[in-house]
């Protein structure tokens, strides 16, 4: 807790200040925009950017993580609350805070129980598919606001403003940083400059509203933003604890996954160490804080954290400075915020989520492992077809499905001896000799419930193909673990082979695996021997060897 | 299909006939009893024992599997239908058949899609916990019928009959087979004799009903059993497809798991080979057949199949004989079946499920692997606390949870050289020498999304403990696979180490792993080299070696 503060050095200050200012300028439009995605008034997004990062700075372990509203979590908030209340009503805002509270409590509980390993239930391809699906859902959801009307009808002044903002943002994204670099701006500064374009576009569009009288033309704006800091209070609807519980579990899980995947990338760059259990507590505290200060579920945002990092953030002081600046913005006159045109905000959201449509993972997986590529595409399709909440469940199911599917086809080799040596190799890859009545099988996978059946089937096939087999030697050099299911399977295999008059032998059992097997009855009951090496098994069991 | 019939030999006939007769005598009370567990009239249990085994014999692959009503599947049927209709009503019977139809279609679809690997989602300890929890739920559910009333009040004549039957059954179970053996009966015959005690007890109790006038005393009986064969028809309520879909998925999954776990044990004893995809189709056809002939969801029963096997069944002809005998029983006068007293049937159910309360798996897991033991107990508790349907989900979650938890703590060793040799061993276990600036790490697990974070953390820890490290060598001799998530993690590790001026090298990469890595950009971008052996890496990278 506050480890970074105890080791603070003065040299860290300039970087923290510049990052704090830059992120604050990025946060104002982004926070308001993501509040809109969550179905809330824009000011809630500012509220959710003040207290949460302060609490995360107290309890979290990443030094550069920027905690606050985030597109996917806002989408999940909206889709969780949609069946319970109408967006824009006081009940909806209450439930959003209550959802943050419950998600925060879920995260705190997971942190106290030290079950940070739950982040490992999502494979990276599945996470990528989830992000792609969510981005598309968010972008499609912003089309009406961008065009100022319900599709297919559109409101021309709104559409011009929205599409104009979109074109400027897209052009800036692809052209500004290279142009700045070409005129001699350092590449870090150029990149940061490009990140501030959304703020500039929103400000420009806001100026246009009174200048061109856009409100009179029917362009919608954010409307009055209440001045002053958020008031601490616990808003909760007591009839809604139960229906919010499942959404809170799913959102809490995604808050943790999204935050960890971003923070890990940054931590790796600076050789920092994250502690997943403290991250759970930091994110839990941040969400409880968001709930108590008029906010909604928040998490670490990879895009904002990357800007924070690039702009020089050395410690969480940068986030504290951002929070202080946002608080100042609320204390200062907020009248101008009321004029922010919604089509321009929608354009910033669309451009932000388009940036999340990364196809690198898909392309890599496609070349490297089609099962992972299929899981990625299926997760994206699941989010699009079934919604973002079901998408989380689909993602876990597909991560596990790909794992078990792969496990269900383990690599197993029949070994033979390279003549004149003590080396044993796959008879299909090498010209190796086998001995009559002796079958050597090497299983290249840990033995567990996911592959015991496949291993059994393969053994049965090999025995059927060699009816004269008298000794089966399982070479366990590649077996890192044997779980209880596999232990039972081995015991049953042993019994079966005994009744068929075939010896079951184990060779090259690894130390930790052997230590564990000694806790079971298998070794005592083994209808055969334990050999240190395959060569020893060969010498003892092959009839040729015996006759020499 | 019918492979067994094409290879039928006359010598198989006596065994098939004796098994067919024995199982039919076991099936009559069991089928009726499990129909009661499912909330259906007893005759439905006989119906569900005629057509399903015939269809399974046509499409399934196990030669000795006895398909029909089974306790856990009946419990799941009852708990799925409870919210939709009242037991005993025509709608309830219709929905039971519809559930069998949907479950059958789910199984057929899984078979056509060839996804038999889904059986691998349950670990053996979790299956044991699920069975224990379900057995307790079933036994408790039979107490009112056993005692003839709602607890705590009981109906004395019923209770005497029920408890009396229970005592006889329990005594027979533990004493009869040993006594028979002692007087010289062969042990197989003695065991089969003991299995027929339920039929004898039910018959004896049925005789007592008219003799003692028990009906007049208020003892409940099965009531009129309609004579005649089941009529083929499709009963379905069109408003109930949707609410039955999720139960059908869960029941279909458990039908497959329960049947496979029993069939595998028997197949192993005879060196038969099961094909999981054909099993899905056989069980699917059996359930569709059950639905069309007035039955309810059915599966292979391990206890009945074991009797079938022990009584000499050589092929599915035994099951066909059983089905024919049950059909005959329905064509013969069925008046006497109406007098079967429910307390005696409840006693047979309780004794049957007590036989499923096997603690061997728990005791083995407790000694061998506490995580598996905890998963077993938690699954049993989940079934008791949340119900049998939620228990399936809990079981899958715990199987996967134990897997990911274990994966999240991979065994990683820092290697050193055994002086004067080319052998490298864990420095914590052996006195081995290390070289300045060179860190050799051996990861004893396949690299995948479940452990990449733990591996990263460990690498970071080891580098932090050795700030002078210039070269990190990952020794991958125990790595059987690297998935896409781990590929990305290695690429990021490579980038990070490059910026810190540390080389990343790979040694002893297995053939299949290397083949796959060549499909990625990792090897081209590697900030270091690929070494065939750890000794070669040592020679190239250790400063000592270089000076020689």
From TrEMBL, chains A, B:
<keyword id="KW-0812">Transmembrane</keyword>
<feature type="transmembrane region" description="Helical">
    <location>
        <begin position="248"/>
        <end position="268"/>
    </location>
</feature>
<protein>
    <submittedName>
        <fullName>SulP family inorganic anion transporter</fullName>
    </submittedName>
</protein>
<dbReference type="InterPro" id="IPR011547">
    <property type="entry name" value="SLC26A/SulP_dom"/>
</dbReference>
<feature type="transmembrane region" description="Helical">
    <location>
        <begin position="129"/>
        <end position="147"/>
    </location>
</feature>
<feature type="transmembrane region" description="Helical">
    <location>
        <begin position="188"/>
        <end position="212"/>
    </location>
</feature>
<dbReference type="InterPro" id="IPR001902">
    <property type="entry name" value="SLC26A/SulP_fam"/>
</dbReference>
<feature type="transmembrane region" description="Helical">
    <location>
        <begin position="306"/>
        <end position="329"/>
    </location>
</feature>
<feature type="transmembrane region" description="Helical">
    <location>
        <begin position="71"/>
        <end position="93"/>
    </location>
</feature>
<keyword id="KW-0472">Membrane</keyword>
<feature type="transmembrane region" description="Helical">
    <location>
        <begin position="280"/>
        <end position="300"/>
    </location>
</feature>
<feature type="domain" description="STAS">
    <location>
        <begin position="428"/>
        <end position="527"/>
    </location>
</feature>
<keyword id="KW-1133">Transmembrane helix</keyword>
<dbReference type="InterPro" id="IPR002645">
    <property type="entry name" value="STAS_dom"/>
</dbReference>
<feature type="transmembrane region" description="Helical">
    <location>
        <begin position="336"/>
        <end position="357"/>
    </location>
</feature>
<feature type="transmembrane region" description="Helical">
    <location>
        <begin position="153"/>
        <end position="176"/>
    </location>
</feature>
<dbReference type="InterPro" id="IPR036513">
    <property type="entry name" value="STAS_dom_sf"/>
</dbReference>
<dbReference type="Pfam" id="PF01740">
    <property type="entry name" value="STAS"/>
</dbReference>
<feature type="transmembrane region" description="Helical">
    <location>
        <begin position="377"/>
        <end position="405"/>
    </location>
</feature>
<feature type="transmembrane region" description="Helical">
    <location>
        <begin position="99"/>
        <end position="122"/>
    </location>
</feature>
<feature type="transmembrane region" description="Helical">
    <location>
        <begin position="34"/>
        <end position="59"/>
    </location>
</feature>
<feature type="transmembrane region" description="Helical">
    <location>
        <begin position="12"/>
        <end position="28"/>
    </location>
</feature>
<dbReference type="Pfam" id="PF00916">
    <property type="entry name" value="Sulfate_transp"/>
</dbReference>
């Amino acid at each position: 807790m506050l480890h970074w503060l105890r080791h603070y050095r003065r040299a860290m200050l300039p970087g923290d200040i510049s990052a704090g200012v830059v992120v604050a300028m990025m946060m104002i439009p982004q926070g308001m925009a993501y509040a809109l995605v969550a179905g809330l008034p824009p000011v809630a997004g500012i509220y959710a950017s003040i207290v949460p990062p302060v609490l995360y700075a107290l309890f979290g372990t990443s030094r550069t993580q920027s905690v606050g509203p985030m597109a996917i979590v806002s989408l999940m908030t909206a889709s969780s609350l949609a069946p319970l209340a109408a967006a824009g009503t006081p009940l909806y805002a209450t439930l959003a805070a209550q959802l943050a509270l419950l998600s925060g409590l879920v995260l705190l509980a997971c942190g106290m129980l030290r079950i940070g390993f739950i982040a490992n239930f999502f494979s990276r391809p599945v996470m990528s598919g989830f992000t792609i699906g969510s981005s598309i859902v968010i972008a499609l959801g912003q089309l009406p606001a961008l065009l100022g009307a319900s599709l297919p009808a559109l409101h021309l002044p709104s559409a011009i403003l929205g599409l104009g903002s979109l074109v400027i943002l897209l052009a800036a994204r692809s052209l500004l940083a290279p142009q700045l670099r070409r005129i001699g701006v350092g590449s870090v500064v150029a990149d940061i400059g490009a990140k501030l374009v959304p703020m500039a576009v929103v400000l420009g569009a806001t100026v246009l509203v009174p200048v061109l009288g856009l409100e009179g033309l029917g362009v919608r704006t954010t409307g009055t933003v209440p001045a002053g800091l958020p008031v601490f209070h616990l808003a909760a609807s007591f009839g809604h604890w139960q229906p919010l519980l499942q959404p809170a579990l799913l959102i809490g899980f995604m808050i943790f996954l999204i935050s960890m995947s971003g923070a890990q990338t940054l931590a790796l760059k600076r050789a920092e160490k994250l502690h997943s259990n403290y991250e759970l507590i930091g994110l839990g505290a941040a969400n409880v804080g968001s709930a108590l200060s008029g906010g909604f579920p928040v998490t670490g945002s990879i895009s904002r954290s990357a800007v924070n990092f690039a702009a020089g953030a050395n410690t969480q002081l940068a986030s504290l400075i951002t929070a202080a600046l946002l608080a100042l913005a609320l204390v200062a006159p907020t009248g101008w915020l009321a004029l922010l045109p919604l089509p321009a905000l929608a354009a910033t959201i669309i451009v932000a989520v388009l940036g999340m449509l990364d196809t690198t993972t898909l392309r890599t997986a496609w070349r490297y492992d089609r099962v992972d590529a299929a899981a990625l595409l299926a997760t994206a399709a699941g989010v699009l077809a079934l919604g973002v909440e079901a998408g989380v469940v689909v993602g876990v199911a597909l991560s596990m499905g790909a794992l078990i599917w792969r496990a269900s086809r383990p690599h197993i080799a029949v070994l033979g001896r390279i003549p004149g040596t003590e080396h044993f190799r796959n008879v299909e890859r090498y010209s190796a000799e086998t001995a009559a009545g002796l079958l050597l099988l090497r299983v290249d996978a840990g033995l567990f419930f996911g592959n015991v059946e496949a291993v059994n089937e393969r053994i049965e096939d090999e025995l059927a193909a060699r009816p004269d087999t008298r000794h089966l030697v399982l070479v366990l050099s590649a077996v890192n673990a044997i779980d209880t299911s596999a232990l039972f399977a081995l015991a049953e295999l042993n019994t079966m082979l005994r009744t068929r008059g075939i010896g079951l032998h184990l060779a090259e059992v690894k130390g930790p695996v052997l230590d564990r097997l000694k806790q079971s009855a298998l070794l005592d009951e083994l209808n055969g021997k334990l050999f240190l090496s395959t060569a020893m098994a060969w010498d003892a069991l092959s009839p040729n060897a015996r006759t020499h």
